[in-house]
TrEMBL record, chain A:
The lineage of its organism: Bacteria, Bacillati, Actinomycetota, Actinomycetes, Micromonosporales. PANTHER family: TYPE I RESTRICTION ENZYME MJAVIII SPECIFICITY SUBUNIT, TYPE-1 RESTRICTION ENZYME ECOKI SPECIFICITY PROTEIN. GO terms for biological process: DNA restriction-modification system. Belongs to the type-I restriction system S methylase family. This is Type I restriction enzyme S subunit. Residues 1-147, 178-320 form the Type I restriction modification DNA specificity domain. It comes from Paractinoplanes brasiliensis. InterPro entries: Restrct_endonuc_typeI_TRD, Restrct_endonuc_typeI_TRD_sf, Type-I_RS_S_subunit. One of its GO terms (molecular function) is DNA binding. Keywords: DNA-binding, Restriction system. Pfam families: Methylase_S. It comes from the Bacteria.
UniProtKB/TrEMBL annotation, chain B:
Residues 23-156 form the N6 adenine-specific DNA methyltransferase N-terminal domain. This is site-specific DNA-methyltransferase (adenine-specific). InterPro entries: D12N6_MeTrfase_N, DNA_methylase_A-5, SAM-dependent_MTases_sf, T1MK-like_N_sf, Type-I_RE_MTase_Subunit. GO terms for molecular function: DNA binding; N-methyltransferase activity; site-specific DNA-methyltransferase (adenine-specific) activity. Belongs to the N(4)/N(6)-methyltransferase family. It comes from Paractinoplanes brasiliensis. The keyword Membrane does not apply. Residues 170-495 form the DNA methylase adenine-specific domain. Keywords: Methyltransferase, Restriction system, S-adenosyl-L-methionine, Transferase. Gene3D superfamilies: 1.20.1260.30, Vaccinia Virus protein VP39. Its EC number is 2.1.1.72.
Amino acid sequence: MSEWRKTTLGDLVTLQRGHDLPSSQRIPGDVPVMGSGGVAGWHNAAKASGPGVTLGRAANLGVPALIQDDFWPLNTTLYVTDFHGNDVRFVYHLFQTLDLSGYNSGSVQPMLNRNFIKGVEVTVPEPAEQRKISATLAALDEKIGVNDRIAACALQLADAYFELAVDGIPAGPETFDSIAQVGGGGTPSTKNPAFWGGAIAWSTPSDVTALRVPYLFDTSRKITDAGLDECASALYPAGSILMTSRATIGAFAIPQIPTAVNQGFVVVTAPDENLTMWLFHEMRDRVDEMVGLANGSTFLELSRKNFKAMNVRLPAPEVVKAFAEKVAPLHKRASAASAENSTLIALRDTLLPELMSGRLRVKDAEKVVEDAV
Amino acid sequence: MPPRKRAGGQTELFTVSSTKQIQDILWKAADKLRGSMDAAQYKEFVLGLVFLKYVSDAFAERRDKIAESLTDLPESRRADFLDDRDEYTLANVFWVPENARWDYLVENAPQGVGELLDEAMDAIMRENPALTGVLPKIFNRDNVDKNRLKELVDLISDARFTGHGDRPAQDVLGETYEYFLEKFARAEGKRAGEFYTPSSVVRVLVEVLEPYSGRVYDPCCGSGGMFVQSQKFIEARAGRDHTHDIAVYGQEQNERTWRLAKMNLAIHHMDPVGIADRWADTFSDDKHPDMRADFIMANPPFNMSDWARRESDPRWRYGVPPQSNANYAWLQHIVSKLGDRGSAGVVLANGSMSSKQSGEGEIRRTMVEADLVACMVALPPNLFRTTAIPACLWFLTKDKGPQGAKGLTDRRGEILFIDARALGTMVDRTERILTDDDIARIADTYHAWRGTKSAKAKNQTYENIPGFCHSATLDEVATHDHVLTPGRYVGASAAEVDPDAVPLTERIEHLRKELYANFDESSHLEKVVRGVLGRVDV
């Protein structure tokens, strides 16, 4: 197995400062304009060919981005103009593992100067070995990507089936309040440590707005039994519908575990799974209307009272059942893809620093075959 | 040999042609002066200079006209007329004494430009009582860079304010003044709210109210943007000759902003006397106690909690507004100043439409039942650079009847709700403007509903449009607890049928194929992942 050698960033790759391109001078096109925070806009001409790597220079100091296509690096970034035969993706991951924020050379504005980081020491393997490492990480990233697409696509398909099913059905006399339980939540006193850090999931709107697909597997904060007793939230069963009702109105999640919520939610619990499926899509379809019903001077808030009184489009039970049977597998597949991604992401984040430091090595393909034999 | 470079942008000024370009160059030059001065003082400084150039140009232009008409007179008598102040004041031109004339200032600038400017300001104020206490005398101070100041004076002298089509120099200076006000509002960000309302918001008020003639009043007038827009409206619709069909009245409590407003009015040929002789708080020191206005336009500070409240104030006819929020104090102040057939437009924070705290819900109910609310408009977000709070417009009137000869549509017992939140165009990441079409859509809707002359001229009739506008009866408003949020009444917009949209069944077919393709790729990648993970040597 090849040896790892010590070198400096300046010898490994050539970095250059990006180029100015004010938004007023951008011409619509399909070339990504890369800023320090990633894609900052689009233009019709490129300054660098892909695949390439940019580093945040004026913000997100040293945070890398990997771009497959030709691109325009803004002068808030540094970008690699010559990889000297090193693997592009490996270089990207290498920058991920380096913390360059300490090389701030700006006095007021943070600023990364390429001359300051030229001498940073790194240990890297030969390009062939680099490619094995980056192929491993790429496989995980691609699987994560396709899982995201599966979840999004399945959900869109379910939305489209709903559009088909609801067509021509007028809002009836039933309201959300008359056919389901409509609840809200609360926050246990944050001053009392006895309420916090328990085993009970407790969701805030930011848990939900951060989701790419509406299935909640975990919450960032947890409360104790005492905390649940003290706060205004019930413990809602898995499969309830959580909808944010203030600031952002109409971000959704179906929790996969029993969850309590804070005061930023309207929670709908339907008597059976079929109706849950129907109401979930009915609510998603009517977010605009809910925003119209919202009040508030500093931020909009949909009151539970206004929500409860909304008339629901509700077909005969058989239609609801047929719809649910059609979309439930799509939801299950989407949530499974999303769950699988949690594992894949954890695996990638564990492997990344180990592989990039050489503490874990990737065996040759032939060797695997031997092992298998 | 290359041409010798002139100082600070002058070369540019000789070559540019558009007003906008001149303004941009002036702005950049003026910006160099910033630094040691605080933003509010700097603003007064630059706008004061532009104003001085304006009065001087207007004076010179008038002087030339008088001279032209005197060609028959013997030389010895001409001077009497040229120096007769009445000849100037009759034409709404300020008398500018010799030591305040621009030519004099430029000629003598080397001897100390700061001192000269302060003296010029003083001299103009002494000669023109309407400007007493208005002009800034801040040029001869330690914190002013004399060289930069001289450069700025030179630039303003050189800028070709004349010769832009058929517009007199003073119009161009008026526009420059406004342009600078807006630029200052942007530069100052949050604190600018007190003197500047975005022009597209002012235009909605003006286009809806159509202030053709009569008294126009703004109880918190800032730098006077409402008046300038009203005048522009009249010029555009009725022509320049009708400019003086309106008389404007305002009040402003910030001293510096009060000066800006006075100058703004003067530079637009309006009588600055309409703005009270001193800055003052509208609640504790009402400068227009007997006002019966035909039109009122206002953008009061949003949700102001620090205000002079007196429980026994006779203006609180519909209930005493809470100390915690002046929104309903402004609304009632405005109603109290409204003539019997007057109408008002007020910009307020969204909370005013639905708040129930501290008795505000009761005041709103009483006002609605008194049939004072004509129209509510919900505005899109980000129109105000100064605040992220969403805003709305209240249109109030005392008479929703046909108003005799005007033959308006009888709208007693009805309120028009317009949900304009979907309108507007983002001009950058944080700022949205309403386009001409957006403004026309709102104004036309109101005019059609009210059956005004302009709607009749355009042959427009009113119709409820789901998702956009709805005319509600007071009973209907009562069922909503007198909450006036337009979204409640206009309902959801009818699903837009896009003729190019892919039919639903085709879309489903497409999604299904995409999903299956993703499944295939997923199982392939699953094998790849198993492969690569198998090779990691743990």
